[in-house]
Amino acid sequence: MQEIIAAKDLETQNNTRWLASVYFKNSINRYWRQRRDSLGISSSEKPYLRKKLLELIREENLQIAVQMAVLVSKIARFDYPKEWPELFSILVQQLQSADILTTHRVYMVLHRTLKELSTKRLTADQRNFAEITSQLFDYAWHHWRSDVQTILQEFSATVQSSIGTVFSVERQQTLQLTCERWLLCLKTLQRMIVSGFQSDAKNIQEVPPVKEVCPSLLQAVQSLLQYRSVFHEGHNFHPFIVKACLKLMKVLIAIQNAHPYSFSSQYVLPPILEFCYKKITDPEVYVVSFDRFLIQCMILFKSVLECKEYKSSNTGRVVGDTVITLEQAKNNIAREAEDVLKLLMVSERVVLLCNVLIRRYFIFTSTDLEEWDEDPEGFHHEQDMIQWIEKLRPCAEALYLTLFENYRQILAPVVVDILKEAMGNCPAAEVDITPRMLLKEAAYGAVGVSHYELSNYLSFKAWFEGALLPELHNTHSNGHIIHRRVALILGQWVSEIKGEIRKPVYCALLGLLQDKDLAVKLASCRSLCSLMEDVQFYEEDFVEYVPACLDMCFETMQNVQEFDSKVQILNLISVIIDRLGEKILPCADKLMQFFPQVWDESSGESLLRIQVILAVQNFVVALGRQSPMAYNMLLPILQFSTDINSPDELNLLEDGVLLWEATLNHAPSMVPQLLDLFPNLIAIMEKSFEHLPVAMKIIECYILLGGVNFLHLHSAGVAKVLDAVVGNVNDKGMLSTLPVIEILVQCFPGDAPPLLGGILQKLIIVFIGGGDESNPSKAAIRASAGAILARLLVQNSSYFAHLTTQSSVSTLLQHAGMKVDQNILLCLVDAWLDKVDNVTIIPRKAYALALCILLTLREPQILEKLDQIISVCTSILMCDIDLNGSEESSYEGLHSIENNEDVVSSAAEETKEFRKRQVKSSDPIKNMSLAHVLKENLQACASLHGDAAFNAAMSRLHPTVLGQLQEFLKT
């Protein structure tokens, strides 16, 4: 490809050469370095390619030259400095050429290469970049100053000539190339100053180029800016003037951000800040319409005002301490910067800047009003979503807020005065769009965005009742300008809307929600959301407005076109449902008609359907036990969103399974349609374990809700899913799965264990095998596995005996690298004894019951552990805890002590939780008498092993434990 690029006979076929350069560039990431899947370019070929590339720098075709520059930068990222140390020395040599095209192309390569290398963050790479900067900076700085003088001289000659005839075509092309080279050189300088020196905010060492370069940049922008009035739009050099002025300001902003302390020099900060201040407050004619330049001035001004390095702290020094720490040195520089700002930003200038921002930049322009009139919906979202650095008004608002934060005591009275003046000059009954109305809108906007700072200076209640509410009585079509602003203010001042004023505000927003202008409607929608999400929202105050509010939302939904508008309305409906809870029931029929309609209309719009699913989920939760009334609407949505073969599966599945879980949580009983949905979950789990935690909760719901009927229908699917999960997921996944296995064994001790045989064998390995006990997750997994096995032994001893005698268990132990020289049951005894102190009440009792049962083993080794087993049992019996009031499972570490009244009262709210409490209260482990089981099995143990051996084992008991045992056995 390089040969094609360099071929002389193809000079007329630039498309071919350009394609070759593009392919060459795109192949670098894959083929330049040796990779497993590709041999790549050989090491012997690389030096030739690098050398040839530098020889081809003087490419006349601009498109190909750009590709070549990017190509060099990509190779430099891999090879510099180890494989290509001569790169920058060769480029420096070519910079000394008198040929302007050559130096232009060199700066293009430098710009791309330095940009690429500056993204490498390792210390060694940053050190290399600093060396490059020291090597290149002087050449680039000399070229830049020389070029700016040439450009200004040539522009001056153009202005002095009648119509520019002094320029020949060749001279114009040369100047154009010089201008482009100057811009590339400026970008190169920016990259070197910003990335070639460590930020002085870290080491407080002055960066010398900042003091040298910034004044020259300021002088250049002042000089070039004047030519904007000469080179009008359409002139050959108008684009360059625009681009150059913006780039110069962006470079100054970048330098200030990177090296704030060096930038605070009296030779840098004062003149630059003064320049920005004048351009913002009193711009020349050729600047007034230059919005993008004014934005840059505001960004720089804002950056300086909010720079934390320019704010000193009040920490002092220890008396007699002569050593100045780094923080003290930073504080000293910060004080100097503060002094500079105090001189520049005296109160009069602060007030003037605030006035200008509100009275000039906050005002809607004729273009804004035309855009609003043509597309109210689009206008609303543009105001909402646009980045503050992209448009002049949002940028002015951002600067205003920063200014207010820094000078609140000065500006708060000023803004209140502006507000009063604007309201006095423009009464609420004003119907014409006059400068007075637009100023009032701007003043309202200023008060709205600075609500936090102004809350102590302005009574919202008095303002609302005396001014904002009367504004809404103006029904003229032009009233929408103020109406929209009032709607936004009611959302911004939400923290001040308290007590009895809430209802009038709700009424006002509902009235605005009926406005004909969509921008007003959507602003009202957003503010209602803010009010309802506020901590001071009480559903009793809003419940009377719910039917009307929902009707207006449904109507607005039919009138909007934008995706964002539909999402905003759906979000409001979802919030209403969430906050109202069961009080939404009177509107349930309306919602059940609305959701299917929106669902059908949003076919192909996955993101909108996600919002529908979220709203439906809130609706199901709000309905609670009455959720079956929504099944005709709900189940088709659920079926579609959980179908992995659905075209929207990638976007909808996550929210679909959450809706599924909510549906089951609040279902009072199982219905055939929900049972028929279960195969979707099996398909989801076969595809991936991404939704494992929610899937396990869904299976648990089916077990609790569906009971035996569910197990008979879907036992194979459940066993398949659990077998695929156990042993193949991380600790978090295991902890999500083990409760499901336990509840299956507890609820179906006869039917479930044979289905879970392979899984239970894996749990034996997990429990006996131990693991990293220092890892809390692994310890919890082992403890839970032991509890499940103990429960199985207690509730289905015959199957447990069958399970532990299967040869496959020994095979699994061998594969796991464990050598078992004794009966597996004895290994389980050792593990239960080891873990009994690490589990909660019910699992401890299960451990103890299992140990009691195993006292009947015919293995003589059981007598050696008799004293430990009895000690465990007596310690549990001695616990002064009423197990009837403590309902815990092996996977819940918190006590859940509840009386029967609590259980009954919560049943109507939490159907799933109610069933879980029922299962826990009927738990055989909980209801068994440990003392009785211990007594029976001790007698059986004595009969099996003989009185002599048994008594010898009992003699090893501690006297205290023996006394406790005798006491319990009497009862």
Helix residue percentage? over 70%
**Main sheet record:** none
Structural class: mainly alpha
**Cα radius of gyration in angstroms:** 39 Å
Figure out the total of helices.
52
Oligomer type: single chain
Low-confidence stretches: 880-909
Strand content: under 5%
Number of strands: 0
Distance between the termini: 95 Å
Describe the structure.
The protein is an all-alpha fold and 971 residues long. The protein is built from 52 helices and no strands. Helix 11 (238-258) runs parallel beside helix 15, helix 40 packs across helix 43 and helix 46 crosses helix 52 (959-970). The longest helix is centred in the N-terminal third of the chain and has 38 residues, at 123-160. The protein starts with a helix and ends with a helix. Residues 880-909 have low confidence and may be disordered.
In short:
The chain is an all-alpha fold.
Note the main attributes of this structure.
0% strand; 971 residues; mainly alpha
Task: Present the secondary structure layout.
Layout: H1 2-6, H2 14-31, H3 46-55, H4 62-79, H5 87-95, H6 100-117, H7 123-160, H8 169-195, H9 200-203, H10 208-226, H11 238-258, H12 260-263, H13 269-281, H14 285-288, H15 291-305, H16 326-344, H17 347-361, H18 366-374, H19 376-385, H20 392-406, H21 408-425, H22 435-449, H23 451-454, H24 460-471, H25 480-492, H26 502-512, H27 518-533, H28 539-542, H29 546-559, H30 563-580, H31 588-601, H32 606-623, H33 631-641, H34 649-665, H35 672-687, H36 692-725, H37 731-747, H38 752-755, H39 757-769, H40 776-795, H41 797-804, H42 807-815, H43 824-835, H44 841-853, H45 861-864, H46 866-878, H47 900-907, H48 911-921, H49 924-927, H50 930-945, H51 947-954, H52 959-970
Helix pairs in contact: 2-4, 4-6, 5-7, 6-8, 7-8, 7-10, 8-11, 10-11, 11-15, 13-15, 15-20, 17-20, 17-21, 18-19, 19-27, 20-21, 21-22, 22-25, 25-26, 25-27, 26-27, 27-30, 29-30, 30-32, 31-32, 32-34, 33-34, 34-36, 35-36, 36-37, 37-40, 39-40, 39-42, 40-41, 40-43, 40-44, 44-46, 44-50, 46-52, 47-48, ...
